[in-house]
Specification:
Largest sheet: 22 strands, antiparallel, barrel
Radius of gyration: 27 Å
CATH class: Mainly Beta
Main location: membrane
Pfam families: Plug (PF07715), STN (PF07660), TonB_dep_Rec_b-barrel (PF00593)
Oligomer: single chain
Subcellular location: Cell outer membrane
Helix content: under 10%
Protein name: TonB-dependent siderophore receptor
Strand content: over 45%
Shape: globular
Number of domains: 1
Number of helices: 8
CATH topology: Maltoporin, Chain A
Domain Secretin/TonB short N-terminal: 78-129
Distance between the termini: 44 Å
């Protein structure tokens, strides 16, 4: 949606007891601020024997070296520390037979050039001969394979593990839900400039539902797009912006190590969420080897920017490490009279107090003095000609002297971890966010008359202050009951958000959509509004991951208490000053999955999951709308050829979401539209076909429709859209990307990449009276390692997105709001690693 928001009003509800104010609720909140969870009520376990000289039987299949070492560390009951760079690309024949720990490690590392060194017989560190890493991408140290929370390895475009579906490190092949990973190298090769753009080659994800705007990271998944960015998570915690306002947190992709995408409902671990899925961002963490990089970028639309990324240990024992990443960026946009500016800095410090206890302190500071463009234009003139003319893709309907968007955000947090023994590990993640947003926007809404070329214009202003924090406590236990291995996770999380908003609105002179003349900036102001919005969520959850021979089972359950309130700060005709309206909700959600792992690398699975999301929106009468609730059944097959990290996934799904709400852009209220059903097929392939060639492929089929509607009278007509498809939900999407790195001959050091993205037609309106045409876009990349000609550590890269400069409409949210697609963007980046 454009930046013209409804002003949600919630009414008092006596239907639910205010649990958060009860003694139980207070006790739960107090427990959240401990540094670790209590150990009571833990199931009886069989503790793994400590590592030593005694022999132990092993039957570990062949695979990538890091995965084999991971399995060995778990079975041997040791801590094994390494970096992904040491084991990157290495394969292992596995380990079969009876070995002492030291003997087994020598066998596993034979021929790799690595050795494992220990001082106490239980904690080992891998050492490798020095290597020339001038152009290597940095990756965070993998500490403690046996802790169960390492993210495995990333090589090229392939990742082996993810935490997004289980909050523990789980192999992608063994996860009974659809998970995609975008690596740092993929982001760089494809020239992603926003978090949304990093996922352009991921199935099931529409990354540009609102066209060429970069202000927010909208992501529509499996056909669901509610116009918010509530499905973005950062380092395991919800981003905590307020999607009912303009205060939404955004992070620059330069600061990310990877992006994990989970398709389908996920409330059992994260609480309130969208049924389409969620996106987890992992930021760059300190490295325990020295890394220094600077880069400069220039490009079309006046793009220019500079970034730096420094990291390394601060002590001789390599127990304290830092990372300092910074970026400055400035660019025009494809829309007249608009530009983007950003200054960001991320200092991070990691401390390994012991082999079992670590703390990472994080901060992220970002100032966006200019937020670019965010609006739409009527379908009449955008999709087809009006009075013989078509609206330019550069058209700006606002006023140059009025339009502005400034966002300041600062977040501070930490990630703490302590391993008590071979069974129990406690983790606590915390983040505080402070944000201010000031905005002035002039936007268009409809033509003056059926034959006029002039668009009516309105003004929206906002002055907002947001404060929020979120904390997540987890206790993980790894143990055996008979032949079954369990990884049990129990947790308590709490989040709190307060947003103070002052909104103004008004009207001003119309503008010609085909020959705009600016300068008519006189605003007729309407009555202002001012609110204090609050949200609290407390969740208790439990999950058990079970390995029984080749079977993998997952079970999860969560109870949430959510409280929202809305207090007006100025008197209104229908609400006296200080009127406070609150709404309390409770919800129990669950998840279950089963997967079978064949020896040949094929893994079929079946899963069920649920989601819920309390509505902060009100209907025309001011009554709160019921929370949306989603359920999903998903079945699929994953295939990972033995000895490789290549992964092929085919999944089918069916999602049903109840209590969906929508609005017309000119209204300040929402109306219920009943139930939506989405079902479809997704195919994905991540392939390292040779040392030189990497390939990504995806296909998406989404069949989404209003399966149950609640007829509503709007604008003098009765709407009943049962059987119709929602807007911004293309039925077909497909993509293919390939990258080839020449490593010999006259082209040694050259990298070339190219991709194609297809997005099928979608509907302009929920009544399905008009289609948004399909479009196909081409991307390309060329890079060269200048170290081949004596400039060691210097690399250049040229990226072109929408190479053919295709003119298209990304989507439409209604007949009067269509969004221009992004035109060709070309950028050149020079980086120096030293």
């Amino acid at each position: 949606m454009r930046d013209t928001l409804a002003q949600p009003r919630l009414t008092d509800s006596n239907e639910f007891q205010p649990l958060l104010d009860s003694r139980l609720g207070k006790a739960v909140r107090a427990a959240l601020f401990g540094t670790a969870l209590g150990l009571a009520s833990v199931p009886m376990v069989v503790i793994a024997e400590p590592a030593g000289s005694a022999s132990q039987q092993y039957n570990i299949p062949a695979g990538s070296l890091d995965e084999v070492l991971n399995q060995f560390a778990r079975q041997a009951g040791i801590t094994l520390s390494s970096t992904p760079q040491m084991t990157q690309g290495a394969q292992s024949p596995g380990l079969q037979g009876s070995y002492a720990t030291d003997q087994a490690l020598r066998q596993l590392l034979n021929g790799t050039g690595l050795e494992a060194v220990s001082q106490d017989g239980t904690s080992y560190v891998l050492h490798a001969a020095p290597q020339d890493a001038a152009l290597a991408l940095p990756t965070t140290d993998v500490r403690g394979f046996a802790l169960g929370n390492a993210l495995g390895s990333m090589e090229g475009y392939n990742a082996t593990h993810s935490q997004i579906a289980t909050k523990t490190s789980t192999a992608l092949l063994e996860t009974s839900q659809s998970v995609s990973v975008v690596t740092r190298q993929q982001m760089d090769d494809q020239g992603a400039q926003t978090v949304s753009q990093t996922m352009r080659y991921t199935p099931g994800v529409l990354t540009n539902p609102y066209g060429a705007t970069h202000r927010y990271d909208y992501v529509a998944m499996r056909g669901f797009n509610d116009g918010s960015v509530d499905n973005i998570y950062i380092d395991g915690l919800k981003s905590m912006g307020d999607s009912g306002t303009f205060s939404t947190m955004q992070i620059d992709p330069y600061f990310l190590e990877r992006v994990d995408i989970l398709k389908g409902p996920s409330s059992v671990l994260y609480g309130r969420s969208s049924p389409g899925g969620l996106v987890a961002l992992t930021t760059k963490k300190p490295l325990y080897e020295t890394f220094r990089q600077v880069q400069a970028t220039v490009g079309s639309q006046g793009q220019r920017g500079v970034g730096f990324d420094f990291s390394g240990p601060l002590d001789d024992d390599k127990r304290i490490a830092y990372r300092l990443t910074g970026l400055t960026h400035q660019s025009d946009t494809q829309f007249d009279h608009n530009e983007e500016k950003r200054y960001a800095l991320a200092p991070t410090l990691s401390i390994d107090f012991t082999e079992d206890t670590s703390l990472t302190l994080q901060a992220y500071l970002q100032n966006d003095p200019e937020g670019g463009y965010h609006a739409g234009v009527p379908a009449d003139g955008a999709l087809h000609k009006r009075n013989g003319q078509r609206i330019s893709e550069h058209f700006f309907e606002g006023e140059p002297g009025i339009d502005s968007y400034e966002r300041n955000q600062q977040s501070f947090g930490y990630q703490f971890e302590h391993r008590f023994n071979d069974v129990f590990t406690a983790r606590q993640n915390f983040r505080y966010l402070d944000s201010t947003v000031k905005m002035d926007q002039v936007y268009a809404w409809g033509y003056e008359s059926p034959t006029s070329n002039k668009l009516n214009r309105y003004y929206t202003g906002a002055d907002e202050k947001l404060h929020s924090y979120i904390i997540d406590n987890m206790l993980q236990a790894e143990y055996f009951t008979g032949a079954a291995k369990h990884t049990t996770l129990v947790g308590l999380d709490y989040q709190r958000r307060k947003t103070v908003v002052d909104w103004s609105s008004g009207g001003l002179a119309s503008i010609d959509a085909f020959n705009p003349q600016y300068g008519n900036s006189q605003i007729t102001y309407y009555a202002p509004t001012s609110y204090t919005r609050r949200l609290q969520q407390t969740g208790i959850y439990a999950q058990d991951l079970i390995e029984l021979d080749k079977w993998r089972f997952s079970l999860g359950l969560r109870q949430d208490w959510v409280k929202t309130s809305d207090e007006n700060r100025i008197a209104e005709p229908t609400r006296p000053l200080g009127t406070k309206i609150s709404d309390d909700r409770t919800k129990l959600t669950g998840r279950a999955g089963v997967l079978y792992l064949f020896d040949n690398g094929i893994a079929p699975y079946l899963s069920y999951s649920e989601s819920f999301n309390p509505n902060s929106y009100a209907d025309a009468a001011g009554n709160p709308l019921a929370p949306t609730e989603g359920t999903q059944w998903e079945a699929g097959i994953k295939y990972q050829p033995p000895g490789t990290d290549n992964l092929f996934t085919a999944s089918v799904f069916r999602i049903e979401q109840e209590n969906l709400a929508t609005k017309q852009p000119q209204d300040d209220f929402y109306y219920p539209v009943g139930q939506v059903r989405s079902q479809g097929l997704e195919l994905e392939a991540h392939m390292q076909l040779s040392e030189n060639l990497k390939v990504l492929g995806s296909y998406t089929f989404t069949d989404i429709e209003y399966s149950k509607t609640m007829p509503s009278t709007l604008a003098g007509s009765t709407l009943d859209n049962k059987g119709n498809s929602p807007t911004q939900a293309p039925k077909h999407m497909a993509s293919l990307w390939a990258d080839y790195n020449f490593r010999q001959g006259v082209l040694d050091g050259v990298r070339v990449g190219g991709g194609v993205r297809y997005v099928g037609y979608s509907w302009v309106d929920a009544e399905n009276t008009m289609k948004v045409p399909s479009y196909t876009l081409f991307d390309a990349s060329v890079g060269y390692d200048l170290g081949k000609v004596g400039l060691k550590g210097v690399d250049v890269r040229l990226n072109a997105n929408n190479l053919t400069n295709e003119s298209y409409i990304a989507s439409c949210a209604s007949l009067n709001y269509c969004y221009m697609g992004e035109e060709r963007n070309v950028s050149a980046t020079v980086s120096y690693q030293f």
